[in-house]
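B., you asked whether I could sanity-check this one before it goes into the benchmark set. Here's the sequence:
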Amino acid sequence: MIMIKKLFPFIILLCYSSVCAQISNAYYSVGEEAYKGGAEKMYQDIHDVMIRKNLQKCPKNEYFYVKLRIDRTGKPGLIQDKRTKEFMQKSPCAYDYVIKTLGELHDWIPSKNVTLSDGTLYEFPFFPNDLVGDNYKKDYNAKEQTEKASYEGGTDAFRKELAYLIGEYLADLYKPEGVFELSFTVNENGRASDFDIFPKSPSSEQFVKDINTITKRMNDKWIPAKFRGQNISSRNVIKIRFRND
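And here's what the prediction gave me:
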């Protein structure tokens, strides 16, 4: 258990940036892409596979939030967590199309920071009916039609709550210095989770685990991202500057 601390030995300055449905790079460093040609090329290649396999529209306009782990060789693997299993139940057609198409894509790019033992996560929303036949539009990118997630009370409220929790619970455990990118997922119900930080350091793995623990204390004050009026998950990024004073 993390002991509660009453002092704040470092000041945390947070600058909110690109709080939207991040289709790429939320787990990658700045300037990196998870797919050659970016998200637009990825969706185009999925469309091409669907045509080649003669896949038809799903009976319903289903949605699947894809979570992949790209290993050091560029091989993708679908994350089979609780959320994925929930999507499998409520969006069986979309899940079926994920399985039938993603294995045919070969232009995945491993992160330069991936190690031998792990991979880098990559997430994106998948609406199969948007990519079927004539429904597909050139340069399609679900991000462009997505209304970004927002926090109740504005970004300053989120900034203050996160800074308070880090200072209250983690201030005496870590002494980070500099600017970091903190990414996290806001799901369809407005719950923030799966926090990660970049650049990495020897202590960042445990630091991220502790951040994921303390942020469970935050109330669900997020308004989820929306795609054509439908709540969807989104990957979001904030920049954090740690300064020890």
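One thing to flag: Residues 1-11, 15-25 have pLDDT under 50 and may be disordered. Otherwise nothing jumped out at me.
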